[in-house]
UniProtKB/TrEMBL annotation:
NCBIfam families per record: mono_pep_trsgly
Pathway terms, separated by semicolons: Cell wall biogenesis; peptidoglycan biosynthesis
Keywords: Cell inner membrane, Cell membrane, Cell shape, Cell wall biogenesis/degradation, Glycosyltransferase, Membrane, Peptidoglycan synthesis, Transferase, Transmembrane, Transmembrane helix
Source species: Herminiimonas contaminans
Protein name: Biosynthetic peptidoglycan transglycosylase
Ranges for domain Glycosyl transferase family: 58-225
UniProt-listed Pfam families: Transgly
Locations listed in the record: Cell inner membrane
Membrane topology of this protein: Single-pass membrane protein
Purpose of the protein: Peptidoglycan polymerase that catalyzes glycan chain elongation from lipid-linked precursors.
Protein family (similarity comment): Belongs to the glycosyltransferase 51 family.
Transmembrane segments: 7-34
EC numbers for this chain: 2.4.99.28
């Protein structure tokens, strides 16, 4: 009986405690980021390690800039393209998740995530690019932590500064310079719409910038931008 209790302790109690400690770490780290900017993210570090396998001297392109110095064109374009209900929902768009789940069931594998801007930020800050329901569950937990600690503007500010926009390119300022040679504050509506459309697959569009889909989707986002509500 004593051996059984020890076995249960190591198989159940210890893993549960480790999971709870991990959640506490996430919670406290997010609280710190309310007033401090992240130096990097889990996703950024992972991409840097991949680049440095080919070139040990490789570095990421990223420069933090305040929310007010990022063009409203870009903010509206991203909300129109990625998360039209960003200003209203509490972090998770359950209708979008249901549609993604139904699509995954139909395809027989995970092909859609239904992630909001807050969920994307949760994944970028702490998680990997792996697609699984376990990772999605952790993403949802971190999402609600972000929404607990931060207002929408702060969430969006961090997102705009750490989201991937190309091969080794992260954040609005680096993206504006990389693609157009201007600051993030100077982005036009058309430039902003095109950058927003790149977000689901930025490394692909960094290399294939003239695809027909990119042009069509950019035109659609341009038409939707004016109705996008900023936080």
């Amino acid at each position: 009986m004593k051996i059984l209790r020890k076995l249960l302790f190591w198989l159940i109690v210890v893993p549960v405690l480790l999971v709870l400690l991990l959640q506490l770490y996430f919670f406290l780290q997010i609280g710190w980021w309310v007033n401090h900017n992240p130096d990097s993210t889990s996703f950024m570090r992972h991409q840097l390690s991949i680049l440095q396998e080919k070139n040990p001297k490789a570095q990421l392109k990223q420069k933090w800039i305040p929310y007010k110095r990022i063009s409203n064109n870009l903010k509206r374009a991203i909300i129109a393209s990625e998360d039209s209900n960003f200003s209203e929902h509490e972090g998770v768009d359950w209708d979008a998740l249901q549609k993604a789940y139904e699509k995954n069931i139909k395809k027989g594998k995970v092909v859609a995530g239904g992630s909001t801007i807050t969920q994307q930020l949760a994944k970028n800050l702490f998680l990997s690019g792996e697609r699984s329901y376990l990772r999605k569950g952790q993403e949802v937990i971190i999402t609600y932590m972000l929404e607990y600690w931060m207002d929408k503007e702060r969430i969006f500010e961090i997102y705009l500064n750490v989201v991937e926009w190309g091969v080794g390119v992260f954040g609005a300022e680096a993206a504006a310079q990389h693609y157009y040679g201007v600051s993030a504050a100077q982005l036009s509506a058309a430039q902003a719409a095109r950058l927003a459309v790149m977000l689901p697959n930025p490394r692909f569009y960094d290399v294939h910038r003239g695809t027909a889909y990119l042009g069509r989707r950019t035109d659609l986002i341009l038409r939707r931008m004016n109705s996008a509500a900023l936080p």
